[in-house]
Amino acid sequence: MFLKRFYVVTLLAGAVLGQDAIMATGTNFTLTGDAMSYLFHVDHASGDLIGDHFGGPTSDFTPPASIFSGGWHDALSNARREFPDIGRSDFRLPAIHIEHADGDTVSAFLYQSHEIVQGKPSLPGLPATYGEVGNVTTLIVQLYDNVSDVSAALSYSIFPQYNAIARSFSIRNNGSGDIVIDRASSFSTDFPNVDLEMIEPHGDWAHEFQTVKRKVEYGETTFRSSEGYSSHLHNPFFALVSPTTTEATGEAWGFSLIWTGSFAATAERFSNGYVRVLMGLNPLHTNIRVAPGASFQSPEAVGIYSSQGVGGMSRSFHDLYRNHLSRSKFTHETRPILLNSWEGLGFDINETSLVTLAGEAEDLGVQLFVNDDGWFGTTYPRNNDTLGLGDWTPNPAKFPDGLQPYVAAINKITVLNETSALQFGIWVEPEMVNPNSTLYTEHPEWVLHAGKHQRTLTRNQLVLNVGLPEVQDFIISTVSRILDSANIQYVKWDNNRGMHELSRPADDYTYILGLYRVIDNLTTRYPDVLWEGCASGGGRFDPGLLHYWPQHWTSDNTDAANRLTIQMGTSLVYPPSAMGCHISAIPNGLTHRNISIEYRGHVAMMCGSFGLELNPSELSPEEADVVPGIMAQAKRVNPMVISGNFYRLRHPDSSNWPGVQFVSADKASSVVFAFQQQYVVKPAAPPLRLQGLDAGARYRNDLDNGTYSGATYMNGGLNIAFPMGDYQSTLIWLERQ
Ligand SMILES: *[C@@H]1O[C@H](CO)[C@@H](O)[C@H](O)[C@H]1NC(C)=O
Ligand SMILES: *[C@@H]1O[C@H](CO)[C@@H](O)[C@H](O)[C@H]1NC(C)=O
Ligand SMILES: *[C@@H]1O[C@H](CO)[C@@H](O)[C@H](O)[C@H]1NC(C)=O
Ligand SMILES: *[C@@H]1O[C@H](CO)[C@@H](O)[C@H](O)[C@H]1NC(C)=O
Ligand SMILES: *[C@@H]1O[C@H](CO)[C@@H](O)[C@H](O)[C@H]1NC(C)=O
Ligand SMILES: *[C@@H]1O[C@H](CO)[C@@H](O)[C@H](O)[C@H]1NC(C)=O
Ligand SMILES: *[C@@H]1O[C@H](CO)[C@@H](O)[C@H](O)[C@H]1NC(C)=O
Ligand SMILES: *[C@@H]1O[C@H](CO)[C@@H](O)[C@H](O)[C@H]1NC(C)=O
Ligand SMILES: *[C@@H]1O[C@H](CO)[C@@H](O)[C@H](O)[C@H]1NC(C)=O
Ligand SMILES: *[C@@H]1O[C@H](CO)[C@@H](O)[C@H](O)[C@H]1NC(C)=O
Ligand SMILES: *[C@@H]1O[C@H](CO)[C@@H](O)[C@H](O)[C@H]1NC(C)=O
């Protein structure tokens, strides 16, 4: 029986402040966003939490669907549950699966009490959304399994402005023996019997964030990463949409997990048509022991509802993640134009050749010079990828006096048209080691390994077990020593393989917690360093790392045609302001495709961190002529990318004429990127209909210099005359008059 005397209702301070983001009427809970409601209640007979609604605004609790309850499926099988456990007649996948101290795996988490707090408590040791009182309100529901003496605290934080709910839970072992958590889904909710389609990212190295859409049928529609990291293969995100939803209209729900390790995402349709959503840890890598008196804290997952199509959902994620997830001071700042030494010099570097390259970079207007791989290793000089990883001491043959005088020489260069010094950045891959290294010779036990099983090499390297405190301390002190040794203003933190030999399934979980400890420490100590994540491209482009680092390298594929698709996909959930994108040389190293420098420039400047990944001395005369103009355009566009609203106008997978648009927050200006993939004699390019403008205002454009109403641009559109030839692009500015 559910016991009334257990209620704790904290009087809603919000009511006094004029806010009603969370209301508890008895134990009926209403979470209200600007254009969204999330309703659930306690079933008084059982104490179970039952879901009522997640969608557009509603104001009443109404009776659930009537489902014939004969046959094998009764009671909980036909309920919409908030925190499904195992046993007790629910045959769908659970959100929580615990092996109790006595070996029993049934759980019965029943309502005990709740409280509402203004603001949002932080999650110890985990990246999470944050917000002040007024931006976010939190409901914490305490559940208890009195058979096993295990409690659960479910947390729901609503950010009304973004129609977003951040969920997580903690499990406390109140018994006297160890329990083991085998499954933990941070977000779990049951949809009624409605038609839904799943939009899901998939891909691979150099092929990130392709998207597929499939119908959510009976059984499980599911994907996961088992690579130890969020990975290229999938990303911890999916959207559910109605079959009629488009980019700009209709209902869309997005689910995003703030976690960098293995994960699992599922939509399961049961016989009654209900669809259970689960987003959380991958059970294959979840076997987490919790001692008596100890707790397990799940990662956080965010659910967002939009009635403005897939684009509306994406923009809510962009704003939530820029304003309430990313904590770097650079998040809201324009980023320096960078040149990376890799394409130009590879491993064949030394102080002289790098300073020369930096001088050439400066002639183009580059503001940040990045020294990529190859700068370290003494006994095992990093002259190629077979050795040196782990030995983070500058190679004396390449830098006779260490990094300090070299970086000082870079800083003596003044940026073109500016008074500021050329900044210096460096590449590291501190979670990895080559067997050919002093570090491995001294600490072979520090790598992930499973007993006597062979330690599988990828790219000639092994993974340090960042779950070990001594490895965490090693990385913290090594990276700190590098940063203290010279004026380093940017770090590219790479990670180039997945986890192979996990001795215990939960080694991945412990590793990721250790990684967060390391990165939290370093970003707190070096807040003025601009950190960029990289994992063979977008292998860890996830909200966990975006909490600490403001940007991530999007893909090792810099072919502008492929990149457009990858960037569009990435923008489903992550803001373009967080993407790193560079112009590289042609023919492209991967695809051998030749695309004009303008098109490559336009695709790269759609991202917050724009740069060059080429040898300036190898630019053709025609390219060299237009590069200064492209650099100037990129600088002008950057503030729009950093703080503007982003619209996918047409997608390269479904149109020969893709387009995107940024609109400033005050709607006073907008920049449009329009592309033609293949030249065709017929048909005509369709008008490019814009979005997000003030319909009644008049905007002047620099395409035909006309001044038209926002409504004209949005309902009529722009007719763009592309020149003949494949891969043409244009950039159009609109200014409100
Ligand atoms: C657990 O709680 C239920 C419902 O309140 C009650 O019926 C049952 O007796 C309790 N069991 C134990 C072991 O306390
Ligand atoms: C809670 O909602 C149920 C319907 O789900 C309704 O029957 C009940 O009266 C509501 N309780 C309160 C206290 O409003
Ligand atoms: C958070 O709330 C404060 C106070 O209401 C407001 O000034 C601020 O703009 C909000 N921040 C965001 C990012 O919405
Ligand atoms: C959990 O155990 C502590 C003592 O270890 C006890 O005080 C507390 O009441 C228990 N909690 C519940 C919900 O039974
Ligand atoms: C630096 O590298 C360049 C290019 O490989 C080479 O020509 C030059 O001799 C090197 N300088 C030193 C001091 O090693
Ligand atoms: C530098 O200034 C020149 C002359 O004003 C201008 O043409 C060029 O575009 C500028 N370059 C950059 C990168 O700002
Ligand atoms: C890699 O560099 C080392 C050290 O300079 C050298 O001995 C080795 O031959 C190189 N290996 C390859 C495959 O180039
Ligand atoms: C160690 O380095 C040598 C020289 O480059 C290379 O031939 C060998 O394959 C490397 N060993 C491993 C395990 O990568
Ligand atoms: C970072 O970790 C070191 C030990 O590895 C510790 O001394 C220091 O206090 C930590 N700093 C922060 C900001 O967490
Ligand atoms: C690309 O351009 C290069 C140099 O201009 C040329 O040699 C090559 O054939 C071109 N490749 C393609 C696929 O057009
Ligand atoms: C638009 O105006 C600019 C500046 O006044 C001019 O350079 C450009 O040629 C004009 N474009 C058209 C299509 O009239």
UniProtKB/TrEMBL annotation:
Sequence ranges assigned to domain Glycosyl hydrolase family 36 C-terminal in this UniProt record: 657-734
Catalysed reaction equations from the record: Hydrolysis of terminal, non-reducing alpha-D-galactose residues in alpha-D-galactosides, including galactose oligosaccharides, galactomannans and galactolipids
Keyword Transferase attributed: no
EC numbers for this chain: 3.2.1.22
Residues of the signal peptide: 1-18
CDD domains in UniProt: GH36
Signal as UniProt keyword: yes
Entry binding sites for substrate: W205, D372, D373, R459, K492, W493, D494, N495, N496, C534, D556
Active site: D494, D556
Molecular function as annotated in GO: alpha-galactosidase activity
GO terms classed as biological process: carbohydrate catabolic process
Any Pfam family: Glyco_hydro_36N
Alphabetic keyword roster: Glycosidase, Hydrolase, Signal
Class of enzymatic activity (EC top level): hydrolase
UniProt feature coiled coil, ranges: none
Domain Glycosyl hydrolase family 36 N-terminal residues, every copy: 75-290
Protein family according to the UniProt entry: Belongs to the glycosyl hydrolase.
Alphabetized PANTHER family for the sequence: ALPHA-GALACTOSIDASE C-RELATED, GLYCOSIDASE FAMILY 31
Protein function: Hydrolyzes a variety of simple alpha-D-galactoside as well as more complex molecules such as oligosaccharides and polysaccharides.
Stated name of the protein: Alpha-galactosidase
Species, as recorded: Clathrospora elynae
